[in-house]
Write a structure and sequence with these properties.
Elements: E1 3-10, E2 16-23, E3 29-33, E4 39-45, E5 51-53, H1 62-65, E6 73-75, E7 81-82, E8 86-89, E9 92-95, E10 104-105, E11 118-123, E12 127-136, E13 147-156, E14 159-168, E15 172-173, E16 177-179, E17 194-197, E18 199-203, E19 216-217, E20 229-230, H2 231-234, H3 240-245, E21 249-254, E22 262-269, E23 274-280, E24 284-288, E25 297-298, E26 304-305, E27 312-316, E28 331-332, E29 338-348
Antiparallel strand pairs: 1-2, 2-3, 3-4, 4-5, 6-16, 7-10, 8-9, 11-12, 12-13, 13-14, 14-29, 15-28, 17-20, 17-22, 18-19, 18-21, 21-24, 22-23, 23-29, 24-27, 25-26
Length: 349
Amino acid sequence: MPISQRSFGVTSEGREVILYTLANDDGMKIEVMNYGGIIRAIEVPDRNGKQADITLGFDTLEPYLGRHPFFGALVGRFANRIGKARFSLDGNEIQLAQNNGENHLHGGIQGFDKKVWHSEVFQDEQVCGLGLAYVSWDGEEDYPGTLSVQVVYTLQGTELSIDYRAVTDKPTILNLTNHAYFNLAGGGNILDHHIQLHADFFTPIDETLIPTGEIRLVDDSPMDLRQPTAIGALIDAEDEQISHGGGFDHNFVVRGAPGSLRPAARVIEKHSGRVMEVLTTQPGIQFYSGNMLPDALPGKADQIYQKRFGFCLETQNFPDSPNKPQFPSPVLRPGQHYSQKTLFRFGTE
């Protein structure tokens, strides 16, 4: 179970960024950096054994240091959006940065994706992995409480698991996820990918992409992805929700009990035969079809990314849950232990 590492550059503050490579005999290779917990690459074979990198990103560190579409990043404290960038906690009104119009997105201006994490590797005959740790101090990005976070990436066979754990010294809110963009073909648009979501309900959004508070059945709508469906078949449907998102950019309610590891999504790219399954303990999963990817964005291996060249499946608590008491609570209190797990399983058919 070889693990290798190399310097990937330095931040503007002079902190060294290390790129770790996890690989095994099952044809899997994962690259993760200690900057932002970013997954830089996931290489998997197709049905003929041909390897390809199925994630979007950059060849060098510099583009990751600037503004980018959160390629591969570990995002927090609060993944996704908080309406009007404010919420109330125990009677205290808390104002966060408005970094997405009037809303708060992915932890703010300098979220977890912009931090250098303490890192430590581990391995045995069957498993290799990378543990990351970060302390977010009380008031960082205006969030209350000093938060100690641990995230562990583990590669075993054809599975990549991400385990999230955290504790706090004051009541706070927390919602962690990974923002990898996938393209199982290794390039081009993702419209021919077939997706299946294990979700009977979704949370509709307004024109600013904030949930309205409703939890709606997917029946008789483009959000009904319970059977394998080509992404391109519905992405431009005449539907208010599709219009609001510019395609898919919605939280789906994962079937089954939150806290239990259960299937959330399955995607197949039929030309290569690559299959990706997502399992999670989280209550929701955000399906984002890359609608806001900038045109002509230089990416890895001389690729030029365009709109809808990648999709995200972000396991999460519901967006704007601090302001929606009918949604699962994102509040973490002293003495409680935040613990979530997401598993990506790769294969072919």
